[in-house]
Every structure is written in C-alpha cells, then in structure tokens.
C-alpha cells in the first residue's frame, strides 16, 4: 500500500503533466517571491498573444459574454487565452488542482459550431470559461477536497451546479485549491500544497476558496465558484481584491458537491461566485436560478431570480445605510476605516448611521459549537486511511462529541440569536431620518488584510452572517499603502485580548499591496437587492474618483 506522501506526489505529477509545455514560463524567468504583485506578470511573458491579453484582461463578465454572443470572440479562443493564463498563474501562486483542458476544448468547439449553425447561444453563459472549487464534481476527475485518501476516486457524474453551468453555456476548465478539511481560512494541504496571494506572494489568499480567489485575481479565470460556511467565499474575495457573493442557505444548488462535516446543518455551507466584476456575480446568479435548480436539489427553495427587486435596489434614490466600524471584539486593521470612509464620501445623498455591533463573541461560540459537535470524527475518518497528518493549523480540531440533546441546544441558541439579530437590525428605524430600518449594512471585509501563512485566524466579520444567514457581497476598494496606512497611530487600548493580539500583527510595510475590501450585507434571501445596492455603491465610488 502506498504511503500518503507517495500518493500525493503521484497526484501532483499527474497534474503537472496536463499543463502544456508551451504554456509554461521558463523557471529562470519566473520572478522571485516578494511583496511585489504578479497579477500582470502573465501578460508580459510572451506566451499570450496581444488578443489573448485583451481577452483575459476584460474584467467585466457582461462585456465578455456580449462579445462571445456576437462572435467577436470565439469560445475556443477565449478558452485558450484563459487556459494559458491559468497555467502561468499556477507557476506563480499554485491555485489549480484538477485540469480539464481536453474536455473544455471539445465543449468550446461544440459551442462555436452551435452558434455558427443556429445563430443562437446555448445559454446566458455561452462560451465563458469557468473555474470551480475542488469540491464540485466533474465527471472523470477527483474531488479530493484536500484529503489524500480521496485521491484516485474519479467522480461518476457532475454536481448539479456544474451540470447547470454547462447547460447555460459555460465551459468549466479547471478546479481550484482549498485547505485540508475545507474548514480553514488559509489554503494549504498535503496533497496540492500552498496557494499564495498574487498581490503579494509573501501573504496567503485566504480560504477556504483560496484557489478561486487567487486564480480570479490573477485573471486566470473570469468567473469562479467557491463555497462559504464561515466566510470561505468572502475571505478570499476580500484578501485577493475581487468581488464575491455569499447567498443565503440553499439559494443555489449544493447537491453533488463533496463536503466535510456532512450532516452538520446548524450552519449550512453555501456556494457563491467570485469575479473581477460585480456583473460576474449577477450573471452567475441569473443563469443558475433561471434553470429552476430546485427541481434537481431538494434543499433549494423555488425562488426564481427577482428582477424587480434587483432593479429597485439599483435605482432606489435614498438608502438607509448602517456602518459597523468594528465587531465589538476585534477592531479591523487601519486601512479598513480608510476604505469605508472613502465609500461613504461618495454617498452624500444617503442616510448613514453607525450600527452597534451585536454580541459577536456569543455568535462565534454558537458557530464553533456547530463545527465541532462531532468531536472531530468526520475529519479523523477522512485522514485515517493513509495516516495523513492534520496540518499544523488544524491540530487542535478534535473535541468532545456532543450528545443529541447538546446539538438541539446549540440549534436553539442559533435560532434565538437569529431572532435577536433581526430585532437589532429592525431597531435601526429609531436612528434613521425616515423611520425605516437600514437597507444595507457596510462591514469591513475582515479584521485583517491578507497576512503571512501560518497565522491564527479570526473570522467573526464573515462568520456572523453565516450564523444569521444574511446575504453579503464583497467589494474591493483599495490596497494597503505604507505611505498612508503606516502613519496610523499605535493603539494602547483594546476591546479584548484578541483585539490586542491582532493589533500587533499590523505592519503596513509587510502587507504592501494587500487588497482592502468591504462587505455589503442585506436582509435574508434578498440577494438581488444586495447585488443592486452594491452596484449603486460601485457606480457612486467610480464617479467620485473620476471627479477627484
């Protein structure tokens, strides 16, 4: 029987063999790992043609789809451009797990032939290359989720999401890295290795959808899909400077995705898109919901895309906006305050109030209980077949197993917290000028920017909204600038021991180029409204910057 090291090495060798030699940069020509951004490095290698650079640097997904539908670009050439860029990205930041170039080329050719013969696109995502987190099954390839014991067990069918993406005309071409167990906000495992942040490769890209965040950020994929149970779409979106959507539980179909902690339904994992454009999130949402996913996934509610809600949010004249500057337990690093203030300065016509943080420590206690109720049995069973060791950041994950009654009590606490948080949100009506509660809540993307691998984690800024099950969109705003952010005064008073610990990790010089993002949070099952409001904020910010 092979050792876990041998299985992992063989699997990585298989992956590397699938990367065409002509898509690789000579080792001597690769930049050294440093704080310098490598986001634009692929366009300077000479591997991509001028037209392929144009294709991969078309950030707006709606624009790319329009050009595909009009035959300005062929699906085959768009795919080839992103395959090249993804391969270069892989040499730089290691985002890829499974590679599906042969199958993707066949699908792209079919789409081109279909459009030429019928004059019609297959669906709203016609010809768009897409990446998916390793959890999503694609027939014929593994879905290891970072466990070595799951290797060499190819999927016999596509997950529901992949099936729907293909029907919409998308071309899945790669799967992306995630942490061992999935339950961590850094992306590293013994099977595929560690993924780095393309904005600064001394930092990590977040997790658990860190492969998606890194690949989308370096323009190796125009639109990707991750999952989120404690922030795993939003954290890499925030730390990699891309847009991301965390929808409410079951809004998009999870059926057929491989997962850890199966049976844990106190805080369900959800899937959501990541893109370099807000339009990517909207196009994804429309395309998936248009296909009635509730007919394929018994957990998905019959909730079609509500375009009226979306359009109303895009055009609403007066917004009531709450701002949660910190969560009451850990203050975010200084650039987050700068980012929020810049956004607010672009919104002079709206009513902005301070939002009092609500019992963050209690929320995180409930969230943690949900994840450790099995005493670590699920994870232990997954690493046992090959005696695979847990990564150093996960070594303390095993705890005492809960009784059935204790699980019920945890669920009860969650429901009580959800009701209390709803009441807290509605009480903002007492602060607004028109007596309505806030429409949206602006929150820092994280407590910290991207940081060096191997640190502790603090996910309350994202995990809170998994617990209460509210939709949230990540908007990239700026980057760490030592010339500006390095002037922030040193703190001497702290909200908690955790606050003091994280405050001391702040070093603008080491975090240079790290993206700084915010979250836009809305009411439960109002994804369309959150996307519409986010569009308003993006347009207002762009106009303010243009006028400056």
Automatic annotation (TrEMBL):
Record-linked Gene3D superfamilies: Amidase signature (AS) domain
Keywords tagged on the record: Hydrolase
InterPro entries: Amidase_CS, Amidase_dom, AS_sf
Active site: residue positions: 133, 208, 232
Binding residues for substrate: 182, 208, 229-232
The keyword Hydrolase is annotated on this UniProt entry: yes
Reaction it catalyzes: a monocarboxylic acid amide + H2O = a monocarboxylate + NH4(+)
EC identifiers of the protein: 3.5.1.4
Annotated Pfam families: Amidase
An MF annotation (GO) of this entry: amidase activity
Amidase domain span: 77-531
UniProt cross-references to PANTHER family, sorted A to Z: AMIDASE (EUROFUNG), AMIDASE-RELATED-RELATED
Family: Belongs to the amidase family.
Protein name (record): amidase
Protein's organism: Sporisorium scitamineum
């Amino acid at each position: 029987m092979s050792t876990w090291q041998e299985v992992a090495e063989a699997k990585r060798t298989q992956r590397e063999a699938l990367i065409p030699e002509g898509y690789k940069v000579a080792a001597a020509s690769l930049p050294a790992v440093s704080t310098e951004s490598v986001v634009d490095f692929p366009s300077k290698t000479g591997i991509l043609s001028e037209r392929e650079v144009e294709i991969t640097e078309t950030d707006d997904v709606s624009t790319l789809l329009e050009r595909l539908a009009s035959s300005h670009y062929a699906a085959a050439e768009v795919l080839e451009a992103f395959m090249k860029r993804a391969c270069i990205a892989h040499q730089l930041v290691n985002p890829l797990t499974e590679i599906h170039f042969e199958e993707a080329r066949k699908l792209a050719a079919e789409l081109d032939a279909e459009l030429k013969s019928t004059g019609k696109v297959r669906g709203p995502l016609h010809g768009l290359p897409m990446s998916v987190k390793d959890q999503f099954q694609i027939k014929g390839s593994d879905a290891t989720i970072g466990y070595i014991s799951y290797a060499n067990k190819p999927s016999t069918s596509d997950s529901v999401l992949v099936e729907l993406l293909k029907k919409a005309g998308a071309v899945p071409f790669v799967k992306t890295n995630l942490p061992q167990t999935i339950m961590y906000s850094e992306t590293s495992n013994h099977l595929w290795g560690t993924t780095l942040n393309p904005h600064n490769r001394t930092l990590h890209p977040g997790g658990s959808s860190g492969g998606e965040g890194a690949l989308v950020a370096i323009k190796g994929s125009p639109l990707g899909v991750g999952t989120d149970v404690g922030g795993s779409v939003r954290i890499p979106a925030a730390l990699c400077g891309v847009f991301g959507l965390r929808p409410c539980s079951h809004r998009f179909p999870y059926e057929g995705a491989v997962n850890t902690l199966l049976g844990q339904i106190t805080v369900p994992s959800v899937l959501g898109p990541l893109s370099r454009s807000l339009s990517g999130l909207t196009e994804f949402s429309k395309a998936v919901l248009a296909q009635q996913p509730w007919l394929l996934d018994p957990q998905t509610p019959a909730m079609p895309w509500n375009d009226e809600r979306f359009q109303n949010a895009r055009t609403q004249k007066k917004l009531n906006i709450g701002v949660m500057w910190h969560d009451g337990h850990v203050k975010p690093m200084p650039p987050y305050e700068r980012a929020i203030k810049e956004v607010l300065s672009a919104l002079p016509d709206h009513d902005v109030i301070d939002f009092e943080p609500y019992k963050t420590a209690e929320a995180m206690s409930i969230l943690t209980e949900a994840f450790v109720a099995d005493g670590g049995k699920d994870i232990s069973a997954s690493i046992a077949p090959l005696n695979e060791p847990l990564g150093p950041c996960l070594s303390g994950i095993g705890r005492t197993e809960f009784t059935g009654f204790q699980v019920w009590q945890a669920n009860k606490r969650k429901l009580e917290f959800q009701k209390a948080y709803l009441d807290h949100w509605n009480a903002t009506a007492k602060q607004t000028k028109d007596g309505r509660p806030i429409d949206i809540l602006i929150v820092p993307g994280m407590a910290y920017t991207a940081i060096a691998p191997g640190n502790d984690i603090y996910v309350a800024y994202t995990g809170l909204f998994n617990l209460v099950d509210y939709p949230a969109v990540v908007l990239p705003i700026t980057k760490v600038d030592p010339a500006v952010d390095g002037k922030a005064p040193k703190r001497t008073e702290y909200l908690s021991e955790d606050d003091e610990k994280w405050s001391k990790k702040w070093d603008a010089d080491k975090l240079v180029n790290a993206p700084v993002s915010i979250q836009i949070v809305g009411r439960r099952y109002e994804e369309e409204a959150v996307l519409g409001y986010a569009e308003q904020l993006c347009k207002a910010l762009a106009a303010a910057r243009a006028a400056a």
